[in-house]
């Protein structure tokens, strides 16, 4: 909560809603249960009502959907592939260990300085992604992550020895409006929807994958 508050203490607005992607099958995965518990505590700390938190994972079973409903959380009716618009509301995105394409899709859907400045993303370190991928691969496959990096502030979640494999490589990301305004105008000109045609290790479950019965796997 302290790391999130540090982000919110800057130019970011306090979130009034939350969207969670990629939680996984928490009925059988202890790591996913810890991530769900962290989410519930975080909502409480930030004063975001549970009814204003929406979740989606194609791996959710009917029983898990029912359990989330009993907790007061909302389950999104369809796979948005991460393309969730904030529609002007300051929003926290909770996306621990999601695939890079989900982050890229989310950025594309909200590709304006005004929208990005209202977002906080808890998820895989953008800086770590940049360090691990060749620049040409990052720019080709995940161009919105590449383009937003100079306008991003990032703080790693505090490490805890008990939860190293559950929250490893996890950071809080926010996008100060002033930093975004300093990016070149050309950064905002290209708004082409990502297709990932040349991506060799796509870490996302698409709507058509689910329809065809492909088994989902959390990255």
UniProtKB/TrEMBL annotation:
Domain of life: Eukaryota
Every SRR1-like domain range: 12-174
A GO term from the CC aspect: nucleus
Pfam families on file: SRR1
Family to which this protein belongs: Belongs to the SRR1 family.
UniProt protein name: SRR1L protein
């Amino acid at each position: 909560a302290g790391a999130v508050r540090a982000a919110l203490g800057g130019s970011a607005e306090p979130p009034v809603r939350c969207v969670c992607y990629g939680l996984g099958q928490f009925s059988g995965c202890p790591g996913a249960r810890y991530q769900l518990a962290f989410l519930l505590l975080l909502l409480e700390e930030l004063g975001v009502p549970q009814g204003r938190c929406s979740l989606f994972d194609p791996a959710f079973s009917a029983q898990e959907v029912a359990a989330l409903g009993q907790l007061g959380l909302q389950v999104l009716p369809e796979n948005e592939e991460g393309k969730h618009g904030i529609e002007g509301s300051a929003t926290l995105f909770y996306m621990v260990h999601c695939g890079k394409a989900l982050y890229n899709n989310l950025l594309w859907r909200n590709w304006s300085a005004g929208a990005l400045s209202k977002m906080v993303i808890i998820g895989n370190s953008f800086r770590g992604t940049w360090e691990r991928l060749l620049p040409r691969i990052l720019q080709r496959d995940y161009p919105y992550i590449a383009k937003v990096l100079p306008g991003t502030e990032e703080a790693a979640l505090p490490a805890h020895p008990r939860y190293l494999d559950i929250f490893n490589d996890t950071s809080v990301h926010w996008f100060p409006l002033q930093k975004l305004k300093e990016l070149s105008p050309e950064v905002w000109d290209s708004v082409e929807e990502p297709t990932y045609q040349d991506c060799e290790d796509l870490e996302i479950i698409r709507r058509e994958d689910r329809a065809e019965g492909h088994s989902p796997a959390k990255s």
